[in-house]
Structures are given as structure tokens and as C-alpha cells.
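#struct-help
A.M.: can someone run this one for me? Single chain, 446 residues.
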Amino acid sequence: MLPSPLPLDPNETNWIVHVNENLNCMRKDEQQCWKSLSIYKVPPSITRLNWEAYQPQVVSFGPYHYHEVHLHPMKEHKHRALLHFLNRSGKSLERFFESLREVVQKLEDSYDKLDEKKWKKGTGGKFLELMITDGCFMLEIMRTATSGEKDNGYAPNDPIFSIHRLEYIAPYIRRDMLLLENQLPMLVLYQLVAIANDGKEDDVNELIGKFYFLDENKNFTGLGRRLHVMDVYRKGMLMKSEEVQHEGELDMGPEDMKISAKKTEPIIWSVIELTEAGIKFKKRKTNSLKDISFARGFLKLPVIKVDDTTESMFLNVMTFERLHIGAGNEVTSYVTFMDKIINDRQDVALLHTEGIIQNDFGSDKAVAKLFNSLCTDVTLPSNENLDGVQQKISEHCKEPWNKWRAILNRTYFRSPWTILSLTAALFLFALTIMQAVYTVLRYHAQ
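D.P.: on it. C-alpha cells below:
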């Protein structure tokens, strides 16, 4: 007779249940387990370099930072925004709750590593309360900040939504809304707006576009359904303004539109070194980060404004591109390209003079340090457009005249003292020649 099995320890039981759940998921379709993921916990291997860049300062959205004490003061303002949203829509809270209950599984599946103990995954409840409250607050902030109306429905002395206070608080909220761990599924905003507007939801992307790109005349109406606010913002960074949407590379000849068949290894020079090789920098009419080109000695770059939020924004968008399969790598490619051509403050100063960098951050040295730090431990992605630009620049710099020109500039014209020394040497050489000629003429005359 076989001995009866020993009773399992509770920890062993939990582990067995966990493995069986994962086994069932794999048997169904392993790909489906990650299909809906779009909001990620940033791994320590990334946050260790700059932890603060991934942390919200004034407001949390979603479950990841909900319990952090320093963000609790915003909870009462979220509740007030919810009341204003419900009052203006004229719809009951029950309608919004039921609408989101129908898609609660999709909303939960959007989050990577959602804490099931805190949020009781699969039941709605507290999780849906969070989605509705945060979604209404986000919509109210964007509406009031972009409406331009003195009477936005809130009291003139409201601590958050009054015109005066919005000017101060909106930049912080804009920053926090672009943190990867601080995203809400866009489905929440689509559902809320659809109920409030009797089925119309297509203006949510446009509202986000106005909130972040108010003066840039970009068309967000045709984007379709997106993942979250960061996804919409990233598209906006790569989008041309409407007035230059159809602008082609009219200044390029056919020979400039293609890379030479003779491949050369791309060389990376700084802005100053490229200038010494005869390359001129020019700002583009558009600020799309994809819009970088090189033709006929001109390197054209989009205009970028650098301020206190730039570091956090780029790091979070680059992390999204790194973690989300299919997101693309255009923003990471742009940042790595700028890191290559910016070595020190002189490079930033030249780009600032050409109107390419608008510096609201600090000194030119601080901006150079910022771009150099963004690419720490970042794997260089392949980007067809920028690879082609770098190839053309390499071919230009390796032409004999441009190569010698760069050497001369670097050797003799880098500083005023070398220029002065060269001028003095040439002057003395000219005097020596004149003296020799005078001596020969005098000899023949005698």
C-alpha cells in the first residue's frame, strides 16, 4: 500500500497554481498573453540611471503610483473634476461605470504586472473607480487648459482649474501625463467622451494634440484609436504641421536623393567639425523629428525646444519604444543622432544661432550634457532615413577637398591665436619674398 502524500505547504500550493495558470495561457495562445500590453513598469536596469525622470511630481494616473503619499493632495481635485464632468455631460455615473465595465478586461490587460491584491483583477470595483476618476480629471485638465475661455465652469479662485492656477500647474501635469508608468488606456477616454457626447469620441486625439502642440497646427483627427496619451504625443512629435505636410525635398537633385552605390563606413563628427568640413546647418519649416535631410552641403534639422521637461519626456518615450513591440524607433533614432553631433557647448551654441535649438533649459553646456546623457546604455537602433543621412555626410566629408578643408580649419583657424600666428607667418613670408625680389632686381640693375 502506497503512503499517503504529505500535505502541501501554502507557498507550494500558490506556486503550483501560478505555474498551472501560465501553462493554460501558453496552451491557448502564448502571443495573446502580451497582446494588449501598452503600459509598462520600467525595469530597474533603466530607472537606475535617472530614477526621478520616471516618477510623477504632482499627479498619478492609473494604478502604479496611486498609493504614493506625496501625490495624495491631488485626490480631492480629481473628485471635484469628476463632479464637474458629470454635471456638464448630464449623464449618470452609472452609465459611465457600465460602459467601462464592459471593457474592464481590456483595461486591466493594458497594464504590465498589475498588482492583483490591490486591484482584485477581473472584478472591476476599485479599478474602474480609478479609471473613471483619473480619466475625468485628465479630460477636464486638457479641456480647461485649451479652451481659452474665462468661464470654464469652475470657480474663479479654484486651486487647480482657475485660469490663474492653471498657468502654473499645467506644465507639471503635462510632464506627468507623459510618464510611461503614469498612463491611462486611451480606451478609458474614448468611452467617457463617447457617453458624454452621445456616441462621438473622435475629438479626444485632437484635444490631446491641442494640449501639447497648441501653436503648431497639426492635424490629429485622422490618427484613429491610439494606446494612450504618450502614444498620441509621440505621433505628434513625428508629424509635420499641416502647412508643410506636402513639402518635398525641392532643393535636392536626383543625385542627392539616393545614396552612392559605393558604400563607405559612416563617420560621426560634431557640429563644429562638420562646419569645418564645409557643411552648413539650416532649420526646417517643420518640427517633425523625422524630418532630417542632407543635400548639397546643407544639413537640415527640425526645430526643438529644450526645457526642464525635455529629459523626462525623451527618456519615457524612448523607453516606450524600447519596451512596446511595433512602436517604432524614430524618437530614439533622433536622440542618438543629436547625441552624435553634439559634443560640447560650442555645438549647441551654433545650433542655437541657426534657430534649430531653442534653449529654455540653461547654459549651452547643460544642453550638451543633457543630450549626451539621454543615450547612456541605449542600444543604437537602425533607422533607414538617418542611416542614409549619415552615409551622405560621410561621403561629403571624405571628398579630398572637404577633407583638407577640415584639416586646415582645425589646424589653423580653430582659435584667434592660431589665425593671428598664421597671418603673421604669411606676412613675414611675403616680406621675405619681397626682399629677395628687391635684391635680385638691384643686382641686375648694377
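A.M.: thanks! The radius of gyration is 30 Å.
D.P.: also worth noting: The chain has three domains: 44-237, 258-405, 417-445.
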